[in-house]
Amino acid sequence: MKNTERFSTRVDNYIKYRPHYPAAVIPYLETETGLTRHTVVADIGAGTGISAQPFLDNGNKVYAVEPNREMREAAENLLSRYPNFTAVNGSAEHTTLPDASVDLVIAGTAFHWFDQVATAAEFRRIGTENARVVLMWNVRQAELPFEKGYEKLLHQYGTDYKDMQHRNVGASELAGFFKPGTMQENVFQNAQLFDFPALKGRLLSSSYIPEKDHPSYHTMITALEDLFEKFKEQGMVKFHYETKLYVGQV
């Protein structure tokens, strides 16, 4: 399966159950990058528009570049109320955007899919002279007993979860992507509360999780239900995230 097709059957669950980004991201970027409502933003690997929406709410013009047709169409439907939103059929390596057309390039939980060398060249091409790049991830934590149990379930049933873990990107891996001395790092706290149907939807939003026609699907869902019943409090379980931001120039 091509990386651009991995989420084609996951769109509905992705929209409903993937974490959004903390509101504090926008004032932080106002301070660190000079973000204003006049800043033109390119959201690369925009998916269903989760990462674009805070900037649209801020009044920014946003070009949402996404190669997966199903996710791009979902973003168009969800964000059509924003006159400053434009969906673009493109990729990180070939956005199709004009030269020097954007002031801020963002990627929300997507950069790990990109070819870093080709992407850096493309970001330099589409960025204005002092353009900044913001790479964001919602990193699910696995410190508490429920979260540890969920992580164990992913290892047991995820078809290529270990391969996905190898795609995790941190400051050391990004050192060669940003211009030396320009990268800044910050962390925000984030969380989600789930009843069981929502927890199931969150699980099924992941591209490495078996779908209904897979032999292990029903066993996996039973294991998830057992995990939920063991750790639920007032009918809910909680995911904790660290939202990691890396800001710099390329």
Automatic annotation (TrEMBL):
Gene3D superfamilies: Vaccinia Virus protein VP39 (3.40.50.150). The keyword Methyltransferase applies. InterPro entries: Diverse_substrate_MTase, Methyltransf_11, SAM-dependent_MTases_sf. It holds the Pfam family Methyltransf_11. CDD domains: AdoMet_MTases (cd02440). One of its GO terms (molecular function) is S-adenosylmethionine-dependent methyltransferase activity. GO terms for biological process: methylation. It comes from the Bacteria. Residues 43-132 form the Methyltransferase type domain. Keywords: Methyltransferase, Transferase. Belongs to the methyltransferase superfamily. This is Methyltransferase domain-containing protein. It comes from Chitinophaga arvensicola.
